[in-house]
Design goal:
The protein has 303 residues and is α/β, with parallel strands linked by helices. It is built from ten helices and 14 strands. The strands form four sheets. A seven-stranded parallel sheet has the order 3-2-1-4-5-6-12, sandwiched between helices. It has a three-stranded mixed sheet with strand order 8-7-11. Strands 9-14 form a two-stranded parallel ribbon.
């Protein structure tokens, strides 16, 4: 039986993000939730605190973490920095997870959210957790893949060093009422801008709706071990071509494409281990995409 996230003390990093904000909103309904971020904008603090979340301001690259409580039941580490500067990004993402785990070593479980961006590009091959790592995101975000790989290594070390039960979850394409990659594509369609698309088609991913990733947090914490459990995390396989075409159907606007190697190609998962340990995502991708548009841009829907 999965952990019951009720009346627990939980830390979420990256609570202002596309993924972290909906999660903080849901968990704050029944738990004591803290949100840690750089909080560079005062309105971000207000937005997060309006959820009932207590804010902690810190830059994981450099700041002292003595003000961060050390008695959390669970830590959900979603924060990521993508400035493009290798020295800073490695400090914030890789060293940062080590510093955070050192501070929170009393946690019952630590969820480190990684990415499918850690894998070597392999076309339509279903990527297993044991497959070769590489820098498939470098063409768009030069530091991203390297920092995610480095952060996984530090998380594995910290799990062993301080006996912290840890799950490293390699996230696919999250989306929902707070946006996501499909929503950016919707904005490009609206603007008449061509969507970059990799030549080796179809371009396959595993988009996962916020309802599913929020629901799966307890199981991801429940399967945390020392040494760390590593698991792919996503929904059913869908092509970028299909979800952008569906956005066109919903809105009556035809997507335009620019075939180029200067964009992401397929990153598609073998989800066997996830289904065994965590369960399957339940939201049909068409329903999820439609709900995203209904929430964020209802004015674009065909009447």
């Amino acid at each position: 039986m999965a952990i019951q996230l009720s009346e627990k003390k939980i830390l979420i990093t990256g609570p202002t993000s596309q993924v972290g904000f909906p999660l903080a909103r849901e968990l704050a309904k029944a738990n004591e939730v803290y949100g840690l971020a750089r909080f560079q904008k005062p309105e971000d603090v207000e937005r997060v605190e309006a959820l009932g979340v207590k804010t902690l301001k810190a830059d994981l690259a450099d700041d002292c973490l003595d003000h961060v409580p050390d008695d959390f039941d669970y830590v959900l580490h979603f924060a990521v920095v993508k400035t493009g500067e290798f020295e800073y990004d490695l400090r914030a993402n890789a060293e940062g997870v080590g510093r955070l785990m050192s501070r929170c070593r009393r946690a019952k479980a630590f969820l480190h959210v990684s990415s499918g961006g850690v894998y070597q590009y392999a076309g339509d091959h279903l990527l297993k957790e044991s497959d070769p790592l590489g820098e498939n995101h470098r063409v768009m975000m030069p530091t991203y893949s390297m920092c995610k790989i480095a952060a996984e290594s530090v998380a594995r070390f910290a799990s062993r060093e301080w006996k912290i039960p840890t799950t490293i979850a390699r996230f696919s394409v999250p989306y929902g009422s707070n946006g996501g990659w499909p929503w950016y594509h919707l904005m490009m369609i609206k603007a008449g801008a061509p969507i970059p698309i990799y030549p080796d088609q179809p371009n396959l991913f595993n988009p996962i709706h916020e309802d599913d990733y929020i629901a799966q947090i307890p199981r991801l914490l429940d399967v945390a071990e020392c040494p760390a459990t590593v698991v792919n995390w996503g929904g059913a396989q869908v092509s970028l071509e299909d979800w952008t075409a569906y956005l066109g159907e919903l809105t009556g606007m035809e997507p335009k494409y620019n075939v180029t190697e200067a964009t992401l190609g397929s990153v598609t998962f073998d989800l066997s281990l996830m289904h065994e340990l965590v369960g399957e995502a339940k939201t049909n991708w068409r329903d999820g995409i439609r709900r995203m548009v209904e929430t964020l841009n209802p004015e674009l829907l065909v009447k």
